[in-house]
C-alpha cells in the first residue's frame, strides 16, 4: 500500500492519500456485515475505484450467537489502479464481537488498524470463544493500531428519540460502523441514505433509524480525537465507458438475458434453489419482460427436465445448480447429449463432497463436468475467470449450445458468484448474433419427403433442430441410441460405435479462441496455467514476481473442453508448467494425460481462494529451481 502524506483538514485531522486499501467487516451472522460491506462497495464503485470483494458467511441459517461458527465477514479491496483480487490481508479489520476478532485477527498484519465494538466484549462472550482474558485489556493486541468504539451504546444513544426499543436500536450498529468507515475514507453518503430509505420503504421508522445510525458513525469520526488520520483513494483510470458494480451471479443472469435477446429465443430457466447458485434464479425472475420464464421446480431432476423440455420445444433451456445438483442432473445431461439439444447447465461450484461446505468456494467439479455421466457423453465446458467475465462466458456457453446442438456446462464458483467488481456495460450493438435457424421442411436424402432429425451440418456436425408441431417434420428423439441420419432406434454395434465417435468429433470440433499467453519479457521459462477464479490471484502473483526480476508467463483457460487448439504448442514452449487449483489437481491431470506434459500441481481445498502472496512464493521457488 503506497502512502502519500496529505494536508490536514479543518479540525486538525491529517489526510493521507493511498493507492489501495483492504477493509474487512466481521461480526456475528446477525450483525449485517454483508449489507455493510456491500454498501461500502457500492459507494467505492460510484466513486470510480477499481474493486474486488470476498463475502464469507457461515452455512448455518443461524449459528449460535457470538460463536466462531457464526462469524460472517465481507472483505473489500479498492484502489486507484487495476486490481485482480480482494486482497490477501486486510489493512483495516472491523470486529463487532470477540468471535469476529478471534476468527480474523490472524490475517491482520502487524501495524494494521483494528476497530473493535467494545460493547460485545463481555465475560460471557469472551468465554464462548476461548478467551481467558480480555484481549482489549491484556496487551495481546499491542502490535496493531487499536480503536475501541462502543458502537452499540453510541447507536442506542443516537436513536433514543426515535421510539425504537433498545434491541431494535442496537441492530443498527452496523450502519454506525459503515458511517465511521465512510468518514475515514471520504466516501459519499447520499447513495447509502437513499438506499436505506428505499430498502426499508415499508418501514420508514426503521429506515430513518438506520440513516441516523449511519450519520452518528460519521459524526463520531468527525468529532472524536481517537482518529487523527483520514484517507483518500482516488478513482481508478479505467477504460472509457459506463460501469456498474456487479456480482458473478448477476452477471451470469444478465448474460443469459442478453443471449435470449441475441438468439431471438424465449428463455426457460428450470431450476431448484441451491447455495451458491440461487441468486441466478432470483435475478432472472425479475426479467419476464425479456421473454424469461423461471420455474422453481420441486427438485434438481425436475428443474433440468423442464429446461431440456423447453429446448425440445424450441426455446433456450437453462438450469442452474451447484455440485450436488450436477450429480442429480447427470442422467438428464446425458439425455441432452443423446438427443443433441441445446442446453446450458450452470454449476456454481462449492466445497464438497456431498453437502460439504455450501457457502465456501472450490474448483473441484471439473472432472465431474468432464466425465460425470454414464457412457461416452462429451460436453463442452466453459469457465469464467471473474465476476464481470460471467456475462461474456454465459454468452459464449449459449453460442456453443445453439450452434452445435449440445448441452454446455458453465463452471462458475462461489468466489466468483458472490464476489463483485466493476463491469463495463457492453454496447448492445456489438453483442454476438446468436440466431439459429430451425428446420422448416423435409430433408430426407432418399426423396421420401420425410424429416431426418440426425442429418448434420457438414461444418459443425450439428443436427437439424425442428420445433415439434411443424407441419411435415414429424420426428422421434429420445435416450435410446439413434441410427445415423434418420434417427430410428438402433442396436447395431457398428452404428453405435459410429455415433459415439461422431458425437465426440462434434465436441472436439467446436471453435474456441486460441489461449493467449501473458509473457511481457518473452524470456520466461516457467508457465503458470489457471482456470476459473484462480485468474486474479495468479495474475497478481505473476505481477509480484516480475517486479522481483523473475520472468514468468501466465495462460488462463476459459475453454476446458475442448481445449484451445494451440494449447499443446504453448505448453511445449516452457521448461516447467505449474497449475494452481482449488482441488487436488484436476486440470493438471487432464493436461498430463492430453499433452504428456509434466505439469506441477499446487493445490488448496480450504474453501477459500488463493492468496497472491502464497502463489508468489510458489512461483518464485519454481523459477529459482529452473534457473539453478
From TrEMBL:
GO terms for molecular function: 2-oxoglutarate synthase activity; magnesium ion binding. Its EC number is 1.2.7.11, 1.2.7.3. Pfam families: PFOR_II, POR, POR_N. InterPro entries: 2-oxoacid/accept_OxRdtase_asu, PFOR_II, Pyruvate:ferred/Flavod_OxRd, Pyrv/ketoisovalerate_OxRed_cat, Pyrv_Fd/Flavodoxin_OxRdtase_N, Pyrv_flavodox_OxRed_cen, THDP-binding, Transketo_C/PFOR_II. Residues 524-588 form the Pyruvate:ferredoxin oxidoreductase core domain. It is an enzyme of class 1 (oxidoreductase). Residues 266-484 form the Pyruvate flavodoxin/ferredoxin oxidoreductase pyrimidine binding domain. Keywords: Oxidoreductase. Residues 30-217 form the Pyruvate/ketoisovalerate oxidoreductase catalytic domain. PANTHER family: 2-OXOGLUTARATE OXIDOREDUCTASE SUBUNIT KORA, PYRUVATE-FLAVODOXIN OXIDOREDUCTASE-RELATED. This is 2-oxoglutarate ferredoxin oxidoreductase subunit alpha. It comes from Saccharothrix violaceirubra.
Amino acid at each position: 500500500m503506497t502512502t502519500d502524506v496529505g494536508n490536514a483538514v479543518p479540525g486538525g485531522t491529517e489526510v493521507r492519500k493511498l493507492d489501495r486499501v483492504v477493509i474487512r467487516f466481521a461480526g456475528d451472522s446477525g450483525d449485517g456485515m454483508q449489507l455493510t460491506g456491500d454498501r461500502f462497495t457500492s459507494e467505492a464503485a460510484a466513486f470510480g475505484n477499481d474493486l474486488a470483494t470476498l463475502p464469507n458467511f457461515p452455512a448455518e441459517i443461524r449459528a449460535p450467537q457470538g460463536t466462531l461458527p457464526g462469524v460472517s465477514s465481507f472483505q473489500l479491496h479498492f484502489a486507484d489502479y487495476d486490481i485482480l483480487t480482494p486482497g490477501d490481508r486486510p489493512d483495516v479489520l472491523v470486529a463487532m464481537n470477540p468471535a469476529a476478532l478471534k476468527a480474523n485477527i490472524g490475517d491482520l498484519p502487524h501495524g494494521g488498524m483494528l476497530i473493535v465494538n467494545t460493547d460485545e466484549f463481555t465475560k460471557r462472550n469472551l468465554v464462548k470463544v476461548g478467551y481467558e482474558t480480555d484481549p482489549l485489556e491484556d496487551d495481546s493486541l499491542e502490535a496493531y493500531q487499536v480503536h475501541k468504539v462502543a458502537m452499540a451504546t453510541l447507536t442506542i444513544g443516537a436513536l433514543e428519540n426515535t421510539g425504537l426499543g433498545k434491541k431494535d436500536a442496537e441492530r443498527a450498529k452496523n450502519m454506525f460502523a459503515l458511517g465511521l468507515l465512510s468518514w475515514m475514507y471520504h466516501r459519499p453518503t447520499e447513495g447509502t441514505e437513499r438506499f436505506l430509505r428505499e430498502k426499508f420503504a415499508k418501514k420508514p421508522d426503521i429506515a430513518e433509524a438506520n440513516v441516523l445510525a449511519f450519520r452518528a458513525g460519521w459524526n463520531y469520526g468527525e468529532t472524536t480525537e481517537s482518529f487523527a488520520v483520514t484517507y483518500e483513494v482516488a478513482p481508478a483510470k479505467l477504460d472509457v465507458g459506463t460501469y456498474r458494480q456487479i456480482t458473478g451471479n448477476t452477471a451470469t443472469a444478465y448474460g443469459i438475458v442478453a443471449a435470449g435477446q441475441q438468439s431471438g429465443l424465449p428463455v426457460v430457466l428450470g431450476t431448484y434453489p441451491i447455495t451458491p447458485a440461487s441468486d441466478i434464479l432470483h435475478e432472472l425472475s425479475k426479467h419476464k419482460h425479456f421473454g424469461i420464464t423461471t420455474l422453481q421446480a420441486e427438485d434438481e431432476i425436475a428443474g433440468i427436465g423442464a429446461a431440456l423440455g423447453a429446448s425440445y420445444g424450441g426455446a433456450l433451456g437453462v438450469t442452474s445448480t451447484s455440485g450436488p445438483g450436477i450429480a442429480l442432473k447427470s442422467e438428464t445431461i446425458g439425455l441432452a447429449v443423446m438427443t443433441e439439444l441445446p442446453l446450458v447447465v450452470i454449476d456454481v461450484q462449492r466445497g464438497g463432497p456431498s453437502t460439504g461446505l455450501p457457502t465456501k468456494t472450490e474448483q473441484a467439479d471439473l472432472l465431474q463436468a468432464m466425465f460425470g455421466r454414464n457412457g461416452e457423453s462429451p460436453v463442452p465446458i466453459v469457465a469464467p475467470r471473474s465476476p464481470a467475465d460471467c456475462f461474456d462466458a454465459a454468452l459464449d456457453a449459449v453460442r456453443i449450445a445453439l450452434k452445435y446442438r449440445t448441452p454446455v456446462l458453465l463452471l462458475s464458483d462461489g468466489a466468483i458468484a458472490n464476489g463483485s467488481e466493476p463491469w463495463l456495460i457492453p454496447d448492445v450493438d456489438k453483442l454476438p448474433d446468436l440466431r439459429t435457424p430451425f428446420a422448416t421442411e423435409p430433408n430426407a436424402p432418399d426423396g421420401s419427403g420425410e424429416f431426418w432429425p440426425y442429418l448434420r451440418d457438414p461444418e459443425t456436425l450439428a443436427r437439424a433442430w425442428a420445433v415439434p408441431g411443424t407441419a411435415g417434420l414429424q420426428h422421434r428423439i429420445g435416450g435410446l441410441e439413434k441410427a445415423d441420419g434418420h434417427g430410428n432406434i438402433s442396436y447395431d454395434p457398428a452404428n453405435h460405435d459410429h455415433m459415439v465417435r461422431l458425437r465426440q468429433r462434434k465436441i472436439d470440433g467446436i471453435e474456441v479462441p486460441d489461449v493467449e499467453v501473458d509473457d511481457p519479457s518473452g524470456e520466461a521459462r516457467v508457465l503458470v496455467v489457471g482456470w476459473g477464479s484462480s485468474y486474479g490471484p495468479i495474475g497478481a502473483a505473476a505481477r509480484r514476481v516480475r517486479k522481483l526480476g523473475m520472468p514468468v508467463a501466465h495462460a488462463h483457460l476459459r475453454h476446458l473442453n475442448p481445449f484451445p487448439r494451440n494449447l499443446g504448442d504453448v505448453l511445449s514452449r516452457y521448461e516447467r508448467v505449474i497449475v494452481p487449483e482449488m482441488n487436488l489437481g484436476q486440470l493438471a491431470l487432464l493436461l498430463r494425460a492430453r499433452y504428456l506434459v509434466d505439469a506441477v500441481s499446487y493445490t488448496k481445498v480450504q474453501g477459500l481462494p488463493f492468496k497472491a502472496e502464497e502463489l508468489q512464493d510458489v512461483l518464485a521457488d519454481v523459477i529459482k529451481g529452473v534457473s539453478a
